[in-house]
Design brief:
Blueprint: H1 2-22, H2 29-37, H3 41-65, H4 71-91, H5 98-116, H6 132-149, H7 154-163, H8 168-192, H9 198-221, H10 224-249
């Protein structure tokens, strides 16, 4: 239907702006597909992850060009995300996502509150970045949860990294990087299971990419304090929407 295509495109553009500017936003796509357009949950997850694969490549290019993706941390996170994403994609057909979704909503809520608090000022010399084992744990957890929920890797990774003291802009950049290996691994499983509507998927690829191109300069043009507030607001809105949807279910 033309109206559905217009709605899908408009949602993709708006969510793309949120992804480009805050890293948080993909968590809203699956609920829109399910409750707004009538997709089955598994199909919505499949379409969302397919679109993140290609739009995520653009996000990586834009953030990398601006020096906002630490290469070493990205390597550890992405390597650990691959087996996590495989397990999450395999679990999609057998594990109810409601409990996991509720836990993620709590993480977003706590992360949004924590991010909203004024951070202690530190210099790059004082900051201690997460170690390899911490990054491996974060990558595996993010890969599993993202492939299971179709929410994009940044929705969980950004608040966790910010809570560990990572600068917001670098946390968002790492969130952009991790979504590509997650989406690639999960999309193979979803294509094999016939869960992806390619027409809707390519529509989202185009509109998400346009939104990301708009949102990325916004993130890099804001002060650290303003970006923290924007990311915090995105987390809190996503958390409230997820908890509200779960409340209606139960």
């Amino acid at each position: 239907m033309p109206s559905a295509a217009v709605g899908l495109g408009a949602a993709g553009l708006l969510i793309g702006v949120l992804i480009g500017s805050t890293g948080i936003g993909g968590v809203l796509l699956v609920p829109f597909l399910v409750h707004g357009l009538g997709f089955q949950v598994q199909a919505a997850v499949g379409v969302a992850l397919w679109s993140y694969l290609f739009s995520g490549l653009l996000a990586i290019a834009l953030y990398w060009r601006r020096g906002s993706i630490p290469a070493r941390a990205a390597m550890w996170l992405c390597a650990a995300a691959i087996p996590g994403a495989y397990l999450g994609a395999e679990a999609l057909s057998v594990v109810p996502g409601k409990v996991v979704e509720g836990l993620i909503a709590v993480v977003l809520l706590l992360g949004g509150i924590h991010t909203l608090r004024r951070a202690q000022e530190t210099t790059p010399q004082d900051r201690i970045p997460p170690g390899p084992w911490t990054l491996v744990g974060l990558g595996g957890l993010t890969g599993f949860a993202s492939a299971l929920l179709g929410a994009g890797g940044a929705f969980l990774l950004v608040p966790l990294l910010v809570a560990l003291g990572e600068p917001v802009l670098l946390a968002v950049g790492l969130g952009q990087a991790i979504q590509v290996p997650i989406s690639a691994v999960a999309s193979v499983a979803n294509l094999r299971a016939g869960r992806i509507d390619l027409a809707a998927g390519w529509t989202l690829v185009i509109t998400l990419s346009a939104g990301i191109a708009i949102g990325t300069p916004l993130a890099h043009g804001l002060s650290q304090r303003a970006l923290r507030r924007l990311v915090s607001l995105a987390m809190l809105v996503a958390a409230v929407m997820m908890l509200g949807r779960l409340a209606r279910v139960f």
